[in-house]
Design brief:
By secondary structure, the protein is of the alpha/beta class. It is built from nine helices and 13 strands. Helix 4 links the parallel strand 4 and strand 5.
Length: 253
């Protein structure tokens, strides 16, 4: 197949690219670095020539709902319109487990994106996944103040970004689901605060790490487990500790 990957240089997108190429697919990366603007559509028509499936992993790191929703809905509409013109047969969207039960701004923006895809007119599949192992580092970086590392309390079941990438290629190789594929999650539940503490120690930082119940909208639901997968989810293999052990030598350097 010829597969296009929106956001193909990002945390998950690069793994999608690798998995697709390993299986013999021809891959087109849709990113500004390859001359494609997903917001304006510049370069998109040429890039989609002959493409059979598009996997959308494009992302924006923002907890501002208006900004995030504008990005996700605009890029999806731009992609879907170009796909319709190019005759693309399958649009695969990466989304997040639990977003319809957690009133968190970023999740609400992703839910709006799902609705755009559902109404877009291109045959589609939506693949929801839990947070990635990298999520602990992202949260740790935003919760470090005056030498103190705060660790947010939240139930999660993190999954390897590499396994998400491979799963998205699996979905693209199948006929469109016209809805959601089975959720994807990691092999076991974790407490985010514990993940942050283990990450910080693995990086050699010895300052205080303080658990905190974040007061933001949606965090109460996530502490209760609203972002955990259901019993029918597909489970990945790599645990957070296994992922951490892979990056410890790099952290030590």
């Amino acid at each position: 197949m010829k597969i296009a990957v929106a956001g193909g240089t990002g945390t998950v997108g690069r793994h999608v690219v690798d998995a697709a190429r390993e299986r013999g697919h021809e891959v087109v990366v849709l990113a500004r670095s390859t001359g494609v603007d997903l917001v304006t559509g510049e370069g998109l028509d040429a890039a989609l020539a002959g493409v059979e499936a598009v996997i959308d992993t494009a992302n924006i790191m923002s907890i501002d709902r208006a900004k995030a929703e504008r990005f996700f809905t605009t890029t999806s509409r731009t992609l879907l319109a170009a796909e319709a013109r190019a005759g693309v047969a399958h649009h695969v969207l990466l989304s997040i487990v639990g977003i319809d039960g957690v009133p968190y701004a970023y999740y609400e923006a992703k839910l709006a994106q799902e609705r755009v895809v559902e109404a877009g007119g291109v045959p589609f599949s939506i693949q929801r996944a839990t947070q990635f192992h990298e999520f602990a580092g992202q949260m740790a970086g935003s919760l470090r103040f005056a030498g103190v590392q705060f660790a947010a309390l939240m139930r999660t079941q993190p999954v390897a970004a590499r396994e998400v990438g491979a799963r998205l290629v699996d979905v693209a190789e199948q006929p469109p689901a016209a809805g959601r594929s089975r959720d994807l999650a990691g092999p076991r539940e974790e407490q985010l605060a514990s993940m942050i503490r283990r990450l910080v120690r693995a990086e050699g930082r010895r300052g205080p790490v303080v658990d905190v119940a974040m007061p933001m909208r949606g965090m109460r639901e996530m502490r209760r487990g609203a972002a955990l997968p259901g019993p029918d989810a597909v489970l990945g293999v790599q645990t957070f500790d296994e992922w951490l052990s892979e990056r410890e030598p790099q952290a030590a350097r």
